[in-house]
Amino acid sequence: VEFQKPIPKAEVPRAQTEADLLLAAVTDSEAYRFGLNLNKIYDYWASARPVVFSGNAPNDPIAESGAGFSVLPEKPEALAEAINRVRLLSPLERQEMGLKGRRYVEEKFDMEVLGKKMAELLIEAAECR
Predict the structure, then answer these.
(1) Of 31, 24, 33, whose CA–CA distance to 62 is shortest?
(2) Would you list the domain boundaries of the chain?
(3) Tens of pLDDT along 82-129?
(4) Which of 54, 4, 3, 62 lies closest to 29 in space, CA to CA?
C-alpha cells in the first residue's frame, strides 16, 4: 500500500489511472442514514479502477456497480482483507472490475441520461396536478 502526497486537482484523473485500486472510506455516521453520494466515487468509476469502499449506508454504490468490494466502516481488518482481495485478482480481473464501474457511471450518470430522467419526472409530476 502506498499513500501519495496531495496533488493538484487537475492531476487527480491521471494519478487515479496509475493506481491498482482506489479507496473510499467514511466513518460510521448518522449523516449517511438516508444514503451516500460521494463525488469521489464518480471519479473513481470514470478511472476504470477497482474500488474498495468502507461505509455504512442504505445504498452501496460499489456493490451496485460491481466495481469493487465494500466493507463496514471502522473495521481495519475487513478493510485490509478487501484490499488484499483486489491484490490477489489477476490484472485482467482488476481491469474487468474497474471497467464495470466505468460502464456503470456512463450508463447511469451521463448528463444526457440524467436529463431525460429529470424531464420524465417533471412531466409525471405536472400530470399528477
Answers:
(1) 24
(2) 9-128
(3) 999 999 999 999 999 999 999 999 999 888 988 999 999 999 999 987
(4) 54
Element at 1 (helix H, strand E) = none
Residue range 9-128, CATH number: 3.40.50.2000
Residue 6, pLDDT score:
92
Which residue, among 21, 85, 12, 10, has the nearest Cα to 48 in the 3D structure? 21
Is residue 70 within 8 A of residue 62, CB to CB? The reply is: yes
Mean pLDDT of 75-85: 97
Q: How many CB atoms lie within 10 A of CB 9?
A: 7
CA 86 to chain centre: 15
